[in-house]
Every structure is written in structure tokens, then in C-alpha cells.
Amino acid sequence: MTLVKNHQKMGITASICLFCFKNKEKHVLLIKNQKEPFKNAMILPSRVMSANESIEEVTKSILKENIGNSKVYIEQLNAFAKQYRHPFERIIDISFYGLINIEKHNIKLSKNKMADFYSIENKPELAFDHDEIIDFALKRVKRRMKYRPIGINLLPDKFTMNELEELYASFMDKKFDKRNFRRRILEMDFVKLVNKVQRSHVGRKTHLYQFDEKKYENYSKIGF
Known about the structure:
seven-stranded mixed beta sheet; 9 strands
């Protein structure tokens, strides 16, 4: 008790930087802040953690409140603790990032909080230090993509090689040579050809692929 009394009181929040990939662009989930400070500004989904709940309970609550589904892939990102990141009091934020496919996951965006996915390139400026959190999360995803596969949580169950390339190009801010990209992906052997084809918008046949879940999981643990 003495230890607590001798230290400054502070609050802890959790925030989630939830990415999806649509229209060939990376998007992030944002909501409208409903209270001061910065009321009505756009922010990342977040909530104050009470003394009697775990960080896992808070993140599940954030997801449930904003997209109606707590079964989403998330990873802890970082703690943001600059002294004046909140203008009223000392607040430390424990941030997470998540990856989701909004077509195959069962989600229901909160109308009350005006939750929606915004293109990273055209999103509004965010309150607090949430733009900084997004930048940090994007760097983490980009770094991870260099050593481990990504996409199983972002792409449909069956996808084209072009869609996979577009995903990597978007999150890594890099343009690939199509032939080299395809060769490299097939060499790593974590995608497999599906015995189906689909027609492109110009009527051309396109092969479909899916992730080999066992090999994908193995690469996710040990890297390329």
C-alpha cells in the first residue's frame, strides 16, 4: 500500500490497430472518439483497463464492441508512455495490432462509434498519438513479412498470385517483379495450387491458390 501511495496515479488503456486489405490497399479500423479530450476526433479502437480485468479481457471487449467479433488474430505491439500523450492525465497505452479479412470474418461494425476501415493513404489525422501507433504497427508488419509469411488472416481462403503480390506490395511499400515474386513464393512452398480457375475482368483464366496451413504455421514459427 505504501508503495502505491508514494507513486503518481496513472491509467492504462489498450488500443488495437486492426488492418485489413481491400481494393488493393491496406486499411485500418478507426472509430469516432465519444468523449473529451478530442471529442468527435477519429481514433484507434481503445478502452481504459480497470483494476480487476486482464489485458486479454480488455482487447476482446474492444473487438466485440467495435466489430462484433473477438476471435481475431492480434499481437501485442508496444507500450506508449510519453508523459503528455494525454492532455488531462498520465495514461499509458498498451497497443496491439491485428489482421483481418472483412469478407470471410463475421463482423458487424459499430454504428454508435462510427467504426469503419479507412485507407492508410487517405485516413484522417488521429487524436492523441494514434498516428504514431499506426506507423509503429506498419513497421512491425513490414519487418515481419521479410522473415515470416503473412496473408492467411488478410486474404480470402482462395486467392490469385496477383492478389498475394498486391498484398505484399502494399504492406511493404515495394513493387515486385511478377516473375521473381511468383518463383520466390513457390520456392518457399507455403502456398499450394487449387484445382480451380477463375476468370479475370478481361476473361483470362487465373489459377487459384491457398495456404498450406501446416507449412505456413511452421514458417511462422521458424522464419524463411
